[in-house]
Amino acid sequence: SREMVSRVMKDLGQQGLIEEGPDGILLRERLNDV
What we know:
Elements: H1 2-14, E1 18-21, E2 24-27
Antiparallel strand pairs: 1-2
């Protein structure tokens, strides 16, 4: 559900894995190295 998604996104944000940008949600560049 959308509620679940927002909860997951919030958790990831707290971990510094993602960030919200002008074009929407952006994955941190370091994730691309995996």
